[in-house]
Amino acid sequence: MEKLEKLTRLISDGNHNAFTSMVRFRGALYLSWRRSSGHAEQDGAIAAMRSFDDGQTWEELTTPFSGKLNYYDGFLHAFKDRLLLYTSGYEIDDKPVWFKSSRAYASESRDGVRWSEPVEIQPSFPMHLWHPTNIGEYIYVAAYRIFRSGFQPWTWEVDLLRSQDGFKWELVSELQRGGTGNEAALLEDDGKLYAFIRNEGGSGHLTLREAEAPYKQWSAETDFHASLQGPVVAKVNGRRFLFGRYRAASPRLGSSYIDRGGTFMRCYVWVEELQLWAEYLSFPSGADCSYPAVVALDDQRMLVSYYSQHDYLDQEGFKDMSGAADIYLAVVRTDALPEWGRVTSQTRAKLEGLGLL
Questions:
Q1: How far apart are CA 331 and CA 49, in angstroms?
Q2: Span of 4-13, 205-214, 252-261, 293-302 with lowest mean pLDDT
């Protein structure tokens, strides 16, 4: 059974297109992404499209996030009768983006076309939001911030926030202190909230935590035993799927800002019977890639958006991050078996302990 049934090169216009987000709202499918001249360039704007036929045809929309700031990682989120759009914005100046702090902004729409004037979310503080999720009457989100001081070691913090309107947020609990965590995906399932935290230093491995409501007390962090960046997790057709940029390079350097060898977009699936995550699918991808989004398509398939530079790797003069990047839309089956022949060291050890390898 082919897990990847269809792959469409959705956006290929010579720009660096990245950081996808995708939701359903009022019967339509909405997709957003960052359009710029390069990953670290200062002309980032948030673009968006919508489809009324499950991604077969699209119309481009306008958003309020262009021109005033250098916008990054925009996230669409459907909450009650509104479509929210979040982004992080940097001041446009001569400083490299890696050494600046951003602010988080939000806009809302009732029809998916007309947007409110963007406002900075409250409390006003340098932070990034990462893929909000609805739980009951609240929106929950993992928010991270980085305190930079030149070339001195940076300080990283990750918090769990919640909001009743999408604009004013309150602290629920601390997700990580004293580490190098940043992007953290959330999944509420079976009465628990699961957090999947990207880490930069040390091994660079993804770490996992879980908590029961009201999400004040978190379990100790456990090692995923693989580097997975830009994580996104979703429960589709009764199965949990985890997506992100797998980084095969040696962890000796710690950060993808420095060492970006062997990167591609990968999906994992939770195997309930064995209580472990197993590899499910590696997508056509390479170099600067990943930052996916996922929605259910039908009872056997899901739609996955992501960005990649793999179609440019053989071009003369290609430069990772500063070259063009394209947006892809994949139709993926949700009812297939894991890739048991390629597993993390932790999964392999567990399978061997069970006598399955």
A1: 18
A2: 252-261
Q: Which amino acid is at 97?
A: V
CA–CA gap between residue 262 and residue 255 (Å, rounded): 13
The DSSP secondary-structure symbol of 346 reads H
Query: Phi, psi at residue 349, to the nearest 5°?
Result: -60, -40
**Residue 189 to residues 140, 233, 274: CA-CA distances in angstroms?**
14, 11, 17
The DSSP letter of residue 116 is P
Dump pLDDT digits (tens) for 204-263.
Answer: 899 999 999 999 999 999 999 889 999 999 999 999 999 999 987 644 434 444 455 578
Please, are residues 228 and 246 in contact by the beta-carbon 8 Å criterion?
A: yes
Q: What is this structure's pTM?
A: 0.94
**Token pair for 254:** 């710690």
CA distance 325 to 22: 18
Q: Which of 67, 78, 160 is nearest to 118 (CA)?
A: 67
Q: What are the residue ranges spanned by the domains of the chain?
A: 4-353
Closest C-alpha to 179, from 140, 221, 137: 221
- Between strands 170-177 and 181-189, the pairing is unpaired
Fold of 4-353: Neuraminidase (2.120.10)
Task: Give the closest residue to 78 by CA, choosing from 122, 21, 119.
Answer: 21
Which pairs from 105-112 meet CB under 8 Å and 24+ separation?
Answer: 105/65, 106/166, 106/167, 107/63, 107/64, 107/65, 108/82, 108/83, 108/84, 108/166, 109/82, 109/83, 109/85, 110/81, 110/82, 110/83, 111/26, 112/25, 112/26, 112/28, 112/30, 112/50, 112/61, 112/83
- 3-class DSSP state for residue 194? strand
